[in-house]
Design a protein that fits this description.
Strand order of the largest sheet: 1-5-4-3-2
Strand content: 25-35%
Order of helices and strands: HHEHEEEEH
Oligomer: single chain
Number of domains: 1
Largest sheet: 5 strands, mixed
CATH topology: Nuclear Transport Factor 2, Chain: A
């Protein structure tokens, strides 16, 4: 008979795999077709990095990631920590890339950037349904100065 602790460990590991799939496959490998596999239809991103038309569901990250891919064509996320407990999973990662696309009307600088991001997600029915994030915007803006 499985113990409650082993069931919790299994769920925590499953939650980590959902987030790893989002980071590795959707973001790093630019496979946006998998967004429906990991994002709940009612997904909400509580941190709007850029003004987006999409407000709910997988379309939020489809649009957000497309903006990132335009601004930093070689963008990549390297996570250093993924922690899961109960219905929450969190990642700390570093985003790197070269600014070769316009940002909010500002021309590309050609600068290489590296900035830190913390993400906290809530999971419902095996999919990410909410995200809260904290981005080191000051570091990013300083690195984008010409």
């Amino acid at each position: 008979m499985e113990t409650k602790k082993s069931l919790n460990n299994e769920q925590n590991n499953a939650n980590k795999q959902i987030l790893k799939k989002l980071i590795e496959e959707a973001f790093n490998n630019r496979n946006l077709d998998i967004l429906e596999d990991v994002l709940h239809p009612d997904f909400i991103n509580h941190q709007e990095v850029f003004p987006l038309k999409a407000k709910k569901g997988p379309e939020v990250f489809r649009e957000l990631y497309s903006v990132f891919f335009h601004i930093f064509s070689d963008v990549k996320a390297d996570y250093t920590h993924i922690i899961s407990e109960g219905e929450y999973v969190m990642a700390r990662d570093f985003i790197t890339g070269t600014n070769d696309g316009e940002i909010n009307g500002n021309p590309a600088t050609g600068n290489k950037v590296k900035f830190e991001v913390f993400h906290l997600y809530r999971i419902k029915n095996g999919k990410l349904i909410e995200r809260w994030g904290l981005t080191d915007d000051l570091s990013l803006m300083n690195q984008l100065k010409s």
